[in-house]
Amino acid sequence: MIVDLFAGPGGWSHALSTLGVRDIGLEWDEWACRTRAAAGQLTLRTDVARYPVGPFVGRTTGVIASPPCQAWSMAGKRLGLLDQPLVHQAVTDLAAGRDTRETLLAACRDQRSLLAAEPMRYLHALRTVGEPEWVAMEEVPDVLPLWKQYAAILRSWGFSVWCGILNAADFGVPQTRRRAILLASRTRSAAPPEPTHARAPEPPTLFGPGRARWVSMAEALGWGATDRPVPTVCAGGGPGGGPEPFPSGSRKTLADARDRGTWQPPPRTRRTASPATTAPARTWTLRTNSQANATVRRADEPVGTLFFGHRANECLWVAEPATTTDQNSSAEPETIRITAAEAGVLQTFPADYPWAGTKGQQFSQIGNAVPPRLAAHLLSPHLGQPLDPDDFTLAA
């Protein structure tokens, strides 16, 4: 079997399913487990730090791990960086068969920090029977020093290991999400996957086609296509709140907004000879959160890293007049909060992925998930299964 630690809503699992393989995911969050169940994924609802390794010994081909990133992420307090010496100590001890987690946990500033050491507990136990065959792990960039420690230990156990930072946009994800990756194998030379996309398209060479341009938000969402359903925007707020773009109690769609002349599928703009009788042209951008350092990108670019904190969805589509002569240029920019379906697509989940829970719970799952398209590129060589780009046609 393939064991997926901290499985979340199924980023790795969905990637595996596109490659014709299933895993068993360990996950404690109720709503992530409900999402996984609705998506037909095998799940044990449990605390990874408490679950025994015994049931997997002698039966495990691959180990996947994406420990919770909140303690390390720039979106949080980053107490994991202060706890890093304790996490390194835990990894060293677990690799030697010493379980000092309880003592080290008491000294941690953020108890989630030590979860990054949990994969070593599983790997040490599986090592006794020559397992697993391969390992794939993912975390925020600041965890790279820890992955290097894992790499040194795994190499001493006979694995070939690569670890480094990859940008999800280089693999067809419409998001410039940078992550620390570790890949290890007992049976093949570990190496990062070959990028398929680049910031600027590359011309073909004698050895084949060049890399395609990064996938934009507009491409991924299918904006401009007439055969695509339009997401619904519901008024009335929800967890994380924030003003809705329509009056309280109303229910509108982006199609309605388009009819009002306020919605233009980015990056397209309307150009007419009679602006007095038609809607003004607008440029749409996506602002990833409400913080001062939020990433703002045009719809014809990939989005920045998507994350959703305790205030749930602060990710906004913002429409600005295309010219300063626009009759509405002095008005407040129009804003529409991104939907869960749109955010999921920008993480390369299918548009109809069955997200469970309230808006806040759905956005939390999406922000913490591994983009399935990136995961598929990482896993394909281990499984000997070629990745078909058509497996990740994103827009609904």
Describe this structure in words.
The structure is a single chain. The protein is of the alpha/beta class and 396 residues long. It has a seven-stranded mixed β-sheet, with helices on both faces. A four-stranded antiparallel β-sheet has the order 13-12-14-15, with no helix packed on it. Helix 1 (11-18) packs across helix 12, helix 4 (84-95) packs antiparallel against helix 5 and helix 4 (84-95) runs parallel beside helix 7 (144-156). It has a domain at 2-205 and 369-392: Rossmann fold. It has helices spanning 11-18, 30-38, 79-82, 84-95, 101-107, 118-127, 144-156, 217-221, 254-259, 340-346, 359-368, 372-383, and strands at 2-5, 24-27, 42-45, 62-65, 134-139, 160-167, 178-185, 197-198, 212-213, 232-234, 251-253, 282-287, 296-298, 316-321, 334-337. It is built from twelve helices and 15 strands.
